[in-house]
Amino acid sequence: MGYLEDFEPGQKFASGRLSVEAARIKSFAMEFDPQPFHLDEDRARDSFFKGLAASGWHTAAMTMRLLVASELKPAGGIIGAGFDEMRWPRPVRPGDELHMESEVLEVRPSKPRPDQGVIKVRTTTLNQNGEPVQIFVGNLIVLRRPVSSGRMAAKSAMSETRAWTPVIARSCNTIASS
Amino acid sequence: MGYLEDFEPGQKFASGRLSVEAARIKSFAMEFDPQPFHLDEDRARDSFFKGLAASGWHTAAMTMRLLVASELKPAGGIIGAGFDEMRWPRPVRPGDELHMESEVLEVRPSKPRPDQGVIKVRTTTLNQNGEPVQIFVGNLIVLRRPVSSGRMAAKSAMSETRAWTPVIARSCNTIASS
Questions:
Q1: Beta carbons of A35 and B68 less than 8 Å apart
Q2: pTM of whole model > 0.80?
Q3: Looking at beta carbons, which residues of chain A come within 8 Å of B47?
Q4: Do both B27 and B48 map to the same domain?
Q5: B153 and B142 housed in the same domain
Q6: Is the reported ipTM for this assembly greater than 0.85?
């Protein structure tokens, strides 16, 4: 569990692996992204994707699963305020095995919210060939270390987190093309 | 079904509505974002979110469902190359009813790919009180109208879409805070 003070630019976090099954590509798409290239091998063959491909939102959701189980453990959980950039440079296929790598790009305390700050993290999702399938730069809300020490103080800092306040991404990061 | 030539900045597209159920918030989170504030009412109450909230990726996936069923119908399907910006300005709660509004911001032909182009679209997801819960600016790949007319020509243009080529978002749009 890390507070804002425990993060610094350049830190990297790895994840385990997750297999992508054709049946889940289709059932996810049936609920959330019902387009032929995510639903049916034959119709996918004649589409832009030249074969069945996972919805980008399925890839994003699988990446979140990898992220939550990764070594990146901010105090209070992984809470995204939004992101600056997202790309899907190549499709995710049935049988792919995904993992992700995160790197902290920026750490900054919040001026209006002295109990929290934001870390900017680039998360790259890769397939079994080491090819990136998703790259995003997200802003995570992270609690600052409570001034008074001990369990009660930490609990209090959590409880006193007031109404949800959006953190607006101001910068625009450029990600080197792979 | 619209080709690139049918889109222009300022066009708006609306969607139907989608209800958010507590059980689906939890089951989605169990698979993709297993954190206490998405899984359990009691533990969510003491968290940053002050109550059960949908995973941002669940909101994104529900928005895609609304988008696919909306009036926005590019030829070849809704194919995202990536995003310039995404924000979740407030949580999605059990019982919320979501809809979305999309606006075309920019239309540009692809230089390296004469058969396609990109439309930049801002999609705002709103709850039943008209409050934005998600705002993203995405880049969609859209086919250009085939030069020769008729069904075969259109089919050919689809089939000749070659290997997947990423379209890199170069600009950084600023979205007015709500």
A1: yes
A2: yes
A3: 76-77, 158, 161
A4: yes
A5: no
A6: no
